[in-house]
Amino acid sequence: MKFKVIYNPEFYNDIVEAVDWYNEKQPGLGERLFKVVKLQTAKLSGSALHYAVRYDDVRCLNIEKFPYLIHFRVDEAHETVKIEAMFHTSRDPKIWDKLID
């Protein structure tokens, strides 16, 4: 099944923040992160159901070569994947609880 991928506007803020941070540390590294995120999120269209539900109805995708998880939801009835957020793996997961309340 192919899903339409949609994005929570907060997801874009997460990407911009991470890209800026990595570019400060090493020029061009932020762009590498962006390319990896773009490629991996596009693949969710055909593979979203391959990821296990971690909590509630949220699934997570590990970003290759970077310490981030993309949190997303699948709505099979509407054939959509909604990408909610990108979290650094060292962040307190309770932050996510506050966002979904």
- Percentage of residues in DSSP E strands: 25-35%
Number of strands: 5
Supply the CATH class: Alpha Beta
Cα gyration radius (Å):
13 Å
- Figure out the total of helices: 3
The CATH topology annotation reads as YaeB-like fold
Considering the protein shown, what is the CATH homologous superfamily? RelE-like
Question: In whole angstroms, how far apart are the ends?
Answer: 30 Å
What's the oligomerization state? single chain
Based on CA inertia axes, which overall geometry fits? globular
Biggest sheet features: 5 strands, mixed
Overall mean confidence score, pLDDT: 90
Overview of this structure, please?
The chain contains three helices and five strands; from the N terminus they run E-H-H-E-E-E-E-H. With 101 residues, the chain is an alpha+beta fold. The chain has one domain (4-100): RelE-like (YaeB-like fold), CATH 3.30.2310.20. Strands 1-5-4-3-2 form a five-stranded mixed beta sheet. The longest helix is centred in the middle third of the chain and has 19 residues, at 29-47. It is globular and about 40 Å long.
Note the topology.
Elements: E1 4-7, H1 9-25, H2 29-47, E2 53-55, E3 58-62, E4 68-75, E5 80-88, H3 94-100
Parallel strand pairs: 1-5
Antiparallel strand pairs: 2-3, 3-4, 4-5
Helix pairs in contact: 1-2
